[in-house]
Structures are given as structure tokens and as C-alpha cells.
Amino acid sequence: MRIDFSQPCVMAVLNATPDSFFAGSRTADEAAIECRVRECLDQGADLIDVGGYSSRSGADVVAPDEEWRRVSTALGVVRRLAPHMPVSVDTFRASVAAQAAERFGEVIINDISAGELDPAMPATVARLGVPYIIMHMKGDPQTMQTLTDYRSDIVTEVCGYFGRRVAELTAAGIRRGNIVLDPGFGFAKTLEQNYELLAGLHKLCALGFPVLAGLSRKSMIYRALDASPADALAGTVALGWEALRQGATVLRVHDVREAADTVRLFGLYEQNRKQA
């Protein structure tokens, strides 16, 4: 169930939540979860990212027991319908990560806080020996959009942060080869900072780790277009292509078929560009 993050792949969002920012992604009961899993499989997802705690700006706090109930329900459906599908768990809580691995086998941990919101997370990931996606964010979902001041340009800040954080995590026992970087588009960043970060994404990719781009239907798209998340699919595809062009290898998306098509066409383009 391991996945090669060095090659472009599509991570499908499965929000087992009632309050995620894109209404079309909410799957609040088991029937809706099953429908979403089948859709992801049919449309070409390479892995499914299960979350039980919305990380949108200002989201309500979810108790650990409730987060685990949501996550375990969704993971149970995924394992039943697609036993060999790689699965990531979108959580910053070590207890949820540990329970997921212990009950459902190897999972990828996708942590929006890079282990900073739960001090037990680095040791837990090291013990589990699983892939670990770490994201750049300041504060938490309740405070992050009040923390958009940076000492230098955003690209330098994010690259510097990951340099320090990777050193800390490897010192805690996490294998360097298990780490994936996520620049955290939309997390403690203004609209302009998001585009500055996207323009410099190649510098993050040059650090030598797989890079995940979570751009799907985010406010950096729909606010720039004076639209809504429901109207942001074309923008998501456009920015996803740009992220791949700069070296990102994981597209985390709500719209699986469109992202799978983007990855396929980008691969064909790259093959022919190198031969030209």
C-alpha cells in the first residue's frame, strides 16, 4: 500500500465532516462516504486523504473522540471497498494517527501542523515508521489568518521553516525518506502571499523532498476570481498544472477526474518536451 511520491499522483480529499469549506466535499454519514470512495476509485485517485476535523479558517474545534469516530468510519469504508488503496489520515493529533495505524494497518499521516500542535506526534510517527506529510502553518485553524506577517519574503520563510523542522523531526527518529512537504497554501497566508509562494514553489521542490500542492478550490482562486468554491474548478486545474511544472508531485484535490487528466497530460507533455 506504499505509494511512490516521486512520481506525480492524485490525492483525493475525503472529508468526513459537516463543515468543510467546499460544500460539495462534505460526507457526514457512511452512505455519503461510500459514494465518495467509489467516485474516487472510478475517477483515478492514487490515494485517499481522510479527514475528520475541518482545517478551514475559523473552523470549530472538534473533540478527539469525535474526530476519531469520523476518521474510523471513513477508513473502514475505504478498507472495505479498496483494501489495497494507499490512505492518508489528515490529523494533527497523535492519538488519532496511532489508532488509525493500529486498527487499519499502515497509513500516511498528513499533519497540517508538522507536529507542532501535538508534541507527541513526532515520536508517534517515528514509532509507526510511516510516510509523514508536514505542512507550513502558523497558529492553528482558529488563529492562522491573523498570523500573516513574515520577516522576509514568504518563499524564503517557508523554505527556512522546513529546513529547521526536518532537522528536528529526523532528530526525533523520523526517516528523512518518509517526509513530504506541503507549503500550506491558504494557511496563515494572504492572497498575494499565496501567489508569491506558488511562483517560488520550485525553490521548495529543490530541497529534495516530494512536495504536495493543496490548491483545490481554495480562496486564493475563488476570491481572485470574485467567485465561490463551487466556481473554482478551472482555476484549480490551471494552478495544479503550474505546481506540477515547478516540481510538485502530489495534487491534493476534490475533483479527482480532472486532476488525473491533468497529471496524465502533464506526463505526455514532459515526455515530448524532453525529446524536442
Question: What's the helix and strand layout?
Answer:
Layout (H helix, E strand, L loop, with lengths): L8 E7 L14 H14 L3 E5 L12 H18 L5 E4 L3 H11 L3 E4 L9 H8 L3 E4 L18 H18 L7 E4 L8 H9 L1 H5 L6 E2 L5 H4 L10 H14 L3 E4 L2 H20 L1
Parallel strand pairs: 1-2, 1-8, 2-3, 3-4, 4-5, 5-6, 7-8
For the structure shown, list the relevant keywords.
8 strands, TIM Barrel, globular, 276 residues, 10 helices
Give an account of the 3D structure.
There is one protein chain. This protein has 276 residues and is α/β, with parallel strands linked by helices. It has one domain (9-275): TIM Barrel (Alpha-Beta Barrel), CATH 3.20.20. The protein is built from ten helices and eight strands. The protein has helices at residues 30-43, 64-81, 94-104, 121-128, 154-171, 191-199, 201-205, 219-222, 233-246, 256-275, and strands spanning 9-15, 47-51, 87-90, 108-111, 132-135, 179-182, 212-213, 250-253. The chain has an eight-stranded parallel beta sheet. Helix 1 links the parallel strand 1 (9-15) and strand 2 (47-51). Helix 1 (30-43) packs parallel to helix 10 (256-275). It is globular.
